[in-house]
User: Which sequence fits this backbone?
């Protein structure tokens, strides 16, 4: 089994085609993607929080698949097909998060400063994760019988570390958004002005 393509797109990033000849890889601006209900009412901060929740789910799935890949990398008896299945899942999750990141980068200038920092953190970590996933795919496609080598285990470990970091960061952002919303709602119920 050959894992073919990983395309992560962000509005400020590049699209990466993995397993494709270098001539096929090209820089692309992402299409901002579909707008959510919040964006039609100019509630970009709420839209960003909703996208954080979507990315949270993808990041948790990526952490799960990265954990499995890391486990497989420690087991010399696992076939390339097993590794490729996990890498294919990771590729899909990275691409999904890349599309959501594109929308976040589109609205970045009109969201809260803490949301801007989270968008930057997601972008940075997701690019690292995409690079490590690309490296693992390229290595596996050319060295299917050498998955026990330290270089491949390093790729798997990096993917897991990035997935773990991303999941934790987005978990905190989602929790902060929820707590902040509850604070403002409680202040409104008590008749206290809140920021």
Assistant:
């Amino acid at each position: 089994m050959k894992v073919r393509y990983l395309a992560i797109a962000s509005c400020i990033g590049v699209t990466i085609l993995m397993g494709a000849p270098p001539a096929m890889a090209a820089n692309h601006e992402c299409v901002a993607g579909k707008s959510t209900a919040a964006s039609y009412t100019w509630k970009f901060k709420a839209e960003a929080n909703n996208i954080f929740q979507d990315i949270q789910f993808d990041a948790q799935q990526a952490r799960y698949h990265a954990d499995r890949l890391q486990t497989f990398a420690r087991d010399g008896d696992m076939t390339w097909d097993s590794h490729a299945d996990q890498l294919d899942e990771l590729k899909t999750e990275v691409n999904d998060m890349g599309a959501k990141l594109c929308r976040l980068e589109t609205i970045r200038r009109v969201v809260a400063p803490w949301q801007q920092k989270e968008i930057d953190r997601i972008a940075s970590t997701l690019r690292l994760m995409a690079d490590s996933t690309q490296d693992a795919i390229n290595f596996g496609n050319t060295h299917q019988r050498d998955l026990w080598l330290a270089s491949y285990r390093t790729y798997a470990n990096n993917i897991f570390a990035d997935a773990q970091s991303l999941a934790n960061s987005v978990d905190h952002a989602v929790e902060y958004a929820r707590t902040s919303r509850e604070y403002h709602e409680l202040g409104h119920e008590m008749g206290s002005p809140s920021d």
About this structure: The two ends are 55 Å apart (CA to CA). The chain has a mean pLDDT of 83. The chain is about 70% helix and 0% strand. The helical segments are 37-40, 44-74, 80-107, 113-142, 150-189.
